[in-house]
Amino acid sequence: MSKISPCLWFDGQAEEAAHYYASVFGGSVDHVSYYPQENPSPSPMAGGSVLLVEFTLFGQSYQALNGGPQFTFDEAISLSVGCADQAELDLYYDALTGDGGKAGPCGWVTDKYGLSWQLVTSAIMANYHSDDKAAIARMMAAMMTMQKLDTAAMQAAFDGETA
């Protein structure tokens, strides 16, 4: 387990979600623990049901907790995925928006469980490290018109090329 592991709150879908994320990103489901059959405290889930799932994506450990319906995901927290290139971004975009997920503005997607993701290529991220504020502004203006990020179009905007 990592020193800091994000814990994602689910309402009964923790194990399903962990397996889904491991299949999308090539990770692993490492451990599943269960609520005690004779639970000594009030519990949102039945005894014997999945309590906590530990899983790993790209060497980072995560926890998926079946905590009940009182908390849900929102865009205040998202997981940002640095993609090597447009093909990798497209792969994750299609996987996360498929089967009930949805596209959002500026490269954000919400998966079928309601968790928000940001998908961006390393080339785009490198441009944000530039001292050329005008180039960054052009790139961001282009980004504001997109759902799925288009690395080539954002690079062209950064470079000052017009379509």
What is the domain total for the residues? 2
Radius of gyration over all CA atoms, rounded: 19 Å
**How is the quaternary structure best described?**
single chain
Topology, number of strands:
8
What's the CATH class of the largest domain, please?
Alpha Beta
Please, what is the CATH homologous superfamily of the largest domain? 2,3-Dihydroxybiphenyl 1,2-Dioxygenase, domain 1
Helix and strand pattern? EHEEEEHEEEHHH
CATH architecture descriptor text of the largest domain? Roll
Give the low-pLDDT segments. none
Structural class: alpha/beta
Report strand order across the widest sheet.
1-4-3-2
Please report the number of helical segments: 5
Average pLDDT metric: 94
Distance between the termini: 48 Å
Molecular shape: elongated
Biggest beta-sheet profile: 4 strands, mixed
CATH fold-level label of the largest domain: 2,3-Dihydroxybiphenyl 1,2-Dioxygenase, domain 1
**Percent in strands:** 25-35%
Helix content: 25-40%
What labels describe this entry?
163 residues, alpha/beta, 2,3-Dihydroxybiphenyl 1,2-Dioxygenase, domain 1, 2 domains, 4-stranded mixed β-sheet, 31% helix, elongated, PhnB-like, VOC family protein, Glyas_Bleomycin-R_OHBP_Dase
Would you mind describing this structure in some detail?
Residues 3-120 form the PhnB-like domain. InterPro entries: 3_dmu_93_MTrfase, Glyas_Bleomycin-R_OHBP_Dase, PhnB-like. It comes from Sphingobium psychrophilum. Pfam families: 3-dmu-9_3-mt. This protein folds into two domains: 1-71, 2,3-Dihydroxybiphenyl 1,2-Dioxygenase, domain 1, CATH 3.10.180.10; 73-162, 2,3-Dihydroxybiphenyl 1,2-Dioxygenase, domain 1 (Roll), CATH 3.10.180. The strands form two sheets. Strands 1-4-3-2 form a four-stranded mixed β-sheet. A four-stranded mixed β-sheet has the order 5-8-7-6. The protein has 163 residues and is of the alpha/beta class. A hairpin with a 2-residue loop joins β3 (50-57) and β4. It is built from five helices and eight strands; from the N terminus they run βαββββαβββααα. The protein has helices spanning 14-25, 86-97, 122-127, 133-143, 151-159; strands spanning 7-10, 28-34, 50-57, 60-66, 78-83, 102-103, 108-110, 116-121. The longest helix has 12 residues, at 14-25. It is elongated.
